[in-house]
Design a protein that fits this description.
Elements (H helix, E strand, L loop, with lengths): L2 H9 L1 E4 L4 H5 L7 E5 L7 H16 L3 E5 L6 H8 L7 E4 L7 H4 L12 E5 L5 E6 L7 H10 L5 E4 L5 H13 L4 E4 L3 H10 L4 E5 H9 L3 E6 L8
Parallel strand pairs: 2-3, 2-4, 7-8, 7-9
Antiparallel strand pairs: 1-4, 1-5, 6-9, 6-10
Length: about 230
């Protein structure tokens, strides 16, 4: 399996701290279950968690709640679930950063593979390089030309160090021979706010987080990752 397929698989999978044998033997759910979103509202993870929680609450007749535990590129919320009781009632929605945490942080407070059991792939989405409509850039060629004219002055926000947006920016720099400055944010919400306000030149993030602004005429999508057009 290619690296891109592995990262796509990891991007929006829901994980649990592990079911115990006793939990499987009981009727589930028997009490409130918790979905932890390790990113703040406004990005792509939080609304998916809330949508799924609402559907499960309705169909299973037990409350599913969403709790935001944000920071450190998703590590804080993920660590919380890693240390939660393995009783089938605490889940975390992980993002692409889960695949690279261990490589970037040798003192990671959990094992990204051994401390979790995969439950479900919620969805995948391509990355998009977007900019605010007040910016002059209309195409990727415009970005490359501007970056070559003024190296290390254009900024590209992402949802955290090690995220797909961060890695995609590094790859773009290498492929185009330019030096865009990667700026990590705590999530898609704060990133979108700064792109809309012009505080950062571009965002390299999931289309799930940015599509509403592009459709609303507030952001301009310059290029997508992947080999086909996005349905969003």
């Amino acid at each position: 399996m290619s690296v891109s397929k592995v990262l796509a698989w990891v991007t929006a999978i829901s994980l649990i701290g592990g079911f115990s044998v006793e939990t499987r033997a009981q009727e589930w759910p028997a009490k409130t279950a918790k979905f932890v979103s390790p990113y703040p509202p406004g990005g792509s993870v939080d609304p998916l968690a809330r949508l799924l929680a609402a559907k499960l609450t309705d169909s299973l007749k037990q409350p599913f709640i969403v709790e935001n535990r944000t920071g450190a590129s998703g590590i804080i919320g993920t660590e919380y679930v890693a240390h939660a009781a393995p009783d089938g009632y605490t889940y975390v929605f992980i993002f692409d950063t889960h695949a690279v945490h261990q490589a970037l942080n040798p003192k990671l407070p959990f094992d990204p593979i051994k401390d979790f059991a995969p439950v479900m792939l919620v969805g995948t989405a391509p990355m998009a390089l977007t900019t605010g409509v007040q910016k002059p850039y209309k195409t990727l060629a415009d970005v490359v030309a501007a970056a070559k004219a003024k190296p290390e002055t254009l900024t590209v926000g992402n949802v955290g160090n090690g995220s797909l947006g961060h890695l995609a920016t590094i790859l773009l720099n290498q492929a185009a021979g330019i030096k865009l400055v990667a700026v990590p944010y705590k999530g898609g919400g704060p990133l979108s706010t700064d792109v809309l306000g012009g505080q950062v030149d571009f965002a390299m993030a999931s289309t799930a987080a940015q599509a509403q602004y592009v459709r609303g005429g507030k952001m301009r999508a310059l290029v997508l990752t992947g080999d086909k057009r996005s349905s969003t």
